[in-house]
Amino acid sequence: MTPSEIIEVLKQHDGAGIVSAVADGLHPHVVVKMDRLPAIAALLQSDWRLRFDLLRCISAIDWPAKNSIELSYDVISTSFGHALAVKVLLDRANPQVESVSVVWPAAEWHEREAFDLMGVTFLHHPDLRRILLPEDWTDHPLRKDYPYPVAYKGLKLNP
Amino acid sequence: MGLIEGIFEPGLVVTSVDWVLNWSRKRSIFPMTFGIACCAIEMMAAGAARFDLDRFGAGAFRATPRQADLMIVAGTVTFKMAERLRRLWEQMAEPRYVMAMGACAISGGPYHLHAYHVVKGVDQVVPVDVYVPGCPPRPEALIEGLLRLQDKISTRTIAKP
Amino acid sequence: MKEIEFQYQSDLHQEGEIPSDIRTEELTLNMGPQHPSTHGVLRVVLQTDGELVLQATPYVGYLHRCAEKIAEKVTYRQFTPYTDRLDYLAGMNNNLGFALAVEKLGGIEVPARAEYLRVIFAELNRIASHLVATGCYGLDMGAFTPFVYCFREREYVLDLFEAVCGARLTYSYITIGGVREDLPDGWIGRCREFLDYLGPKIAEYNNLLSYNHIFINRTGNVGVCPPDLALAYGLTGSCLRGSGVKWDLRKATPYCRYNEFDFDIPVGRGEKGTVGDCWDRYFVRIQEIGQSVRIIRQALDKLTEGPTQAKVPRAVKLPAGEIYYEVENPRGQLGFYLVSEGGTSPYRLKIRGPSFCNLSVLPVVARNCLLADVTALLGSLDIVMGEVDR
Questions:
Q1: Which of A75, C178, C263, C276 stands the most exposed, by the fewest C-beta atoms within 10 Å?
Q2: For residue range B133-158, what is the model confidence (pLDDT) as tens digits?
Q3: CB–CB contact B120 A157 (8 Å)
Q4: Dihedral of CA A114/A115/A119/A120: which sign?
């Protein structure tokens, strides 16, 4: 299916939840409303025409200019070969969204990484804690306004 | 000196305790498997068939620090890893040596700018005896570092300093 | 001789009476981050009941080198060496993924000779990476010979790499716009010699390790990962194909002229146990070495004359936009999500490391296996911590 056909199927099921869609170009995607994400994720995985069974990546992008954090869920179907990205825009002051790990368990670790490096909270995640940085690290490094630490447990960053 | 010269048969080796001790220590260094990142692969290649480390007596990699003489820090040390590295170094028995292999272990390497989680050089954590530059250093460079370490070991003495 | 059947059942969960003088307790065992079999700095905390593993929790991040933050601060050309160090056993493939992502976003067209050279080097690096995986897997199982044999073959591949770009491990050879240098004289002859030499060696590895009864007993029926579980946890590469799913990006979404080549996709068939066990994942890699040899031979025949680099300005500036591009690495699908705001550095570069997703299945698959099977599992997943932690 082409991206525009996939977007049609999504619009049929939940037209109100889709904020915008880009079918052409290098990165076809739909932007959905934050509260409709779990339903649309379940639809993408289970619909017989779509069958997006492989979650490739969850990327978090910090847009301080737009005062939001964007999450991009890239999915692909190993049965049909088509790919799509689903995006949500979250409020930068308090980024929270429902976890999709019930749909794609691969999301467990990707969401932990987004929490660790960008500070996005995923509700109902089975085990949300830092994954790459130490447990007692403060702040979220991939934010654009991240202050580099001076030292960690006595070890200076710039000796 | 004329009294003791020329009275031993040729073939009888005259040496000192220091020399024998240092010779046996430097010819059988047991490295610890402490490969962290890319340099670990070159360390493994140095231990493999072409650049055999075993011919220097240093081919027996011990996994436990209690049985190791040399900790080859091969790779980037991060803040999360630094604590564990210090603990492993403290578990090694004296005489113990540390080789900083690769640019990352010497000074942070390509990650010395802009990285928030990298220790800029393992000598912030443990005292280093030999530095082997390279990114990653060739196995020949690692062997050169090992030979320099052997030279360093042969300067030890059991007499009072 | 009577067949002795072992029933591995946890004492703690047995119905009925437990004799009052036997006290069983769970033991929490820490594996790593410094451990000979964890393939890098991985820490696994195991809850065991005797020899039975009840829970395995991996802890990662000991090699987090902030590649994504660095990408926002350096230019595109300056980031190529950092891609080498992601999956340091497959530097050419990482370089290729990043170069393709940047070229697709920038609309840069690569000359034909460069594309064939890229295929040759990517497949040679696949052979080298699978040789390390095989050798280290044998080493984890206690067999030292496959290690030295595989590293001997790998040295010949590294000789070929060194002749063309001067480096043995971190190449930065496949750059934006093409490849850095052209082949030296006599390289193609040496490459063909190596491919002829490698063919019989694969049969030797099969005799030595793959069909070895001890190896089959240790890896067959161990760590079974059914195909739906593999897809659910985002497994890709040989781990997914070992579970029986015939999915390879070089065939599904061909890039860099892979559609011109004729090769097969080996999948696990449960020959020595169940589909998706450790032996299947391992044997897929052995078969992929053979397929890579096929691809390289065809690429050497198709190699055209011409430039090896497109005319790309020294300071690469990309138009505003975004792209998510994946390539088939030896360990799975390496993805680059590149967001550009029109400058000389990326605005955001997210790297999807295949080993990060492959490792996430460990807690599920390691349940109810024996302690010795954990090393078999980790070796068959073939992780490299450089791309787990980035």
A1: C263
A2: 999 999 999 999 999 999 999 888 87
A3: yes
A4: positive
